[in-house]
Amino acid sequence: AQKVTQAQTEISVVEKEDVTLDCVYETRDTTYYLFWYKQPPSGELVFLIRRNSFDEQNEISGRYSWNFQKSTSSFNFTITASQVVDSAVYFCALSERGYSSASKIIFGSGTRLSIRP
Amino acid sequence: SAVISQKPSRDICQRGTSLTIQCQVDSQVTMMFWYRQQPGQSLTLIATANQGSEATYESGFVIDKFPISRPNLTFSTLTVSNMSPEDSSIYLCSVMGLTNTGELFFGEGSRLTVL
C-alpha cells in the first residue's frame, strides 16, 4: 500500500533562513508520481511540483528546490532565503500509475511552516 | 490549469440536516475528486466522481452518507447527509490536470461547521 510520511509537524524559522521539509514515501509500484502542494492560510491548495519515478534529477525553481532520492524513498523540499509569505502548510503527495485514469493521490499529514520576521 | 469554483464557501449547519456542495469547472475534465480535510488534518479522498455513472467511494465512505452527482464533464455535487459535528470539515473538489500526469488542482473548498 502507498503511504506518505511527513515527520515534521511544525517548523518555525526566522526570515531569510533556509529550511528543508522532509517527505518519505512507500509504494510497491515502479511507476509513480510525487507532488508538493502549498496550503496558505487562505486555505486554497496550490500545486508546486510533480516528479515522476523515472526522473531523479533535482529541480530548482527560484528559491524552491526539490531533492528526489529513490534509494531512500525521499522527496525533500528546500526553501532558500525564506520569506514570511512562505508561511503555510506544505503537503507531500504520491500517486501510483500517475497517468492512469484509475490513479488517485494520497497526501502526507503536512508540515506547518512558520516564517518569523 | 482549470479554474474550479465551489459553493458554498462556508456554512454553518444544524445536526441532522443535509447540505449539497457544488463544484463547477471552467473546462471539461475527465477526473473529478472529492476530498475532506478535517481541522488541522491532511486531505482524505472521499470518492471519485464519474460522469454518467455512480461515484467510486474510498474505504470508510458510503453513498448514503455522501451521495455524489456528476451530470456532465464540468460539474459535480457532493451532499453531506444527516450531518453531525464530526462532519465539520473543509470539503474540496479537485480535478486532474489536462496532461493526465497526476497533479490535481483544487477549488477553494467549502468549510462546513455542524452544530
Explain the overall architecture.
- The complex is a heterodimer of chains A (117) and B (115).
- Chain A is built from no helices and twelve strands.
- Chain A has strands at residues 3-5, 10-14, 19-21, 24-26, 32-39, 46-52, 59-61, 64-69, 74-79, 88-96, 105-107, 111-116.
- The model of chain A is unreliable at 98-102 (pLDDT under 50).
- The relative contact order of chain A is 0.34.
- Chain A has 117 residues and is an all-beta fold.
- Chain A is globular, with a radius of gyration of 14 Å.
- Helices cover 0% and strands 53% of the residues of chain A.
- In chain A, the strands form three sheets. In chain A, strands 2, 5, 6, 10, 11 and 12 form a six-stranded mixed sheet that branches.
- Chain B has 115 residues and is mainly β.
- Helices cover 0% and strands 50% of the residues of chain B.
- Chain B has no helices and eleven strands.
- Chain B has strands at 4-7, 10-13, 19-25, 32-37, 43-49, 56-57, 68-72, 75-80, 89-96, 104-106, 110-114.
- In chain B, strands 2, 4, 5, 6, 9, 10 and 11 form a seven-stranded mixed sheet that branches. A four-stranded antiparallel sheet of chain B has the order 1-3-8-7, with no helix packed on it.
- In chain B, strand 5 (43-49) and strand 6 (56-57) form a beta hairpin.
- Chain B is globular and about 40 Å long.
- At the A-B interface, strand 6 and strand 11 of A face strand 5, strand 9 and strand 10 of B.
